[in-house]
Amino acid sequence: MLEIENLEVTFSARGQDVQAVRGLSLAVAPGESYGIVGESGSGKSTVLRAICGLAPVTGGQIVLGGRPLPRRRDAAFYRHVQMVFQDPYASLHPRHTVDAVLSEPLAIQGFDDRDARIARALDEVGLGAGFRFRYPHQLSGGQRQRVAVARALILEPELVLLDEPTSALDASIQAEVLNLLDRLRHERGLTYVLVSHDLAVVSHMCDRLLVMQHGQAVEELTRADLRARAATTDYTRRLLEASEGYRPETQP
Ligand SMILES: Nc1ncnc2c1ncn2[C@@H]1O[C@H](COP(=O)(O)OP(=O)(O)OP(=O)(O)O)[C@@H](O)[C@H]1O
Ligand SMILES: [Mg+2]
């Protein structure tokens, strides 16, 4: 589904270069749920942004469905790949109703059965028709994130990139949204790449995960490795220890 080979991302700000991703490679199979973890600033979000064409890629290549991605992502790309961001407050326009948020991608892609698709999308994320004409400030954080999930899924993408999709939410709401994402993945055979600093979230949601540090891949673990705490590097062991709430016996 997705192959990243030797990815390099370098930000240049005021004559200073920041190498946010250095020679990173990973491969995600169709239907897999793949996690990326690492300390703050390790380059996790930058990898997702690079896939979407939103980061300055200075080397390597990204292959989607067997084809290297062109420099610019076109509308067709967003039929296949969608992203959910961390902060549901920031990712929804304050003056756009839920209806407008969900209509926009459909309009861009030229769908004409918009009413039916919006109704179905709201239903699928557990928000009924009553939410359709509400504004973001009339929704709870969890409801907003459900709208963001509906927006991502309304075009029926195959690959969904999730950047800390629940870290802005309360623990109980977090579990609800994670369960929703998990259910939708199974129902639709979606492929996920999920970034989280929370190893409990990743071990609940992901089949495999990549540990990143300073823009590089440190090691790759399976869920079983993670649950057995079978990390091979000190860095990952420290992450495991530091991950508050990491209790293999109390999965969300
Ligand atoms: N637009 C930008 N311009 C300059 N530097 C950037 C930019 N975006 C990210 N960086 C730098 O790239 C590095 C990786 O950032 P990134 O946001 O990918 O980290 P992260 O692993 O997602 O961290 P967090 O867990 O805090 O979200 C950081 O050093 C950051 O300061
Ligand atoms: Mg980030």
TrEMBL record:
GO molecular function: ATP binding; ATP hydrolysis activity
EC number of this enzyme: 7.4.2.10
InterPro entries, sorted: AAA+_ATPase, ABC_transp_ATP-bind, ABC_transporter-like_ATP-bd, ABC_transporter-like_CS, P-loop_NTPase
CDD domains from the UniProt entry: ABC_NikE_OppD_transporters (cd03257)
GO CC annotation terms, alphabetical: plasma membrane
GO biological process per UniProt: transmembrane transport
Record carries keyword ATP-binding: yes
Main location (coarse class): membrane
Catalysed reaction, written as an equation: glutathione(out) + ATP + H2O = glutathione(in) + ADP + phosphate + H(+)
Domain ABC transporter: 2-239
Membrane topology qualifier: Peripheral membrane protein
Compartment(s) of residence: Cell inner membrane; Membrane
Keyword terms, alphabetized: ATP-binding, Cell inner membrane, Cell membrane, Membrane, Nucleotide-binding, Translocase, Transport
Subunit structure of this chain's protein: The complex is composed of two ATP-binding proteins (GsiA), two transmembrane proteins (GsiC and GsiD) and a solute-binding protein (GsiB).
Reported function: Part of the ABC transporter complex GsiABCD involved in glutathione import. Responsible for energy coupling to the transport system.
Family listed: Belongs to the ABC transporter superfamily. Glutathione importer (TC 3.A.1.5.11) family.
Record's protein name: Glutathione import ATP-binding protein GsiA
Organism of derivation: Phaeovulum vinaykumarii
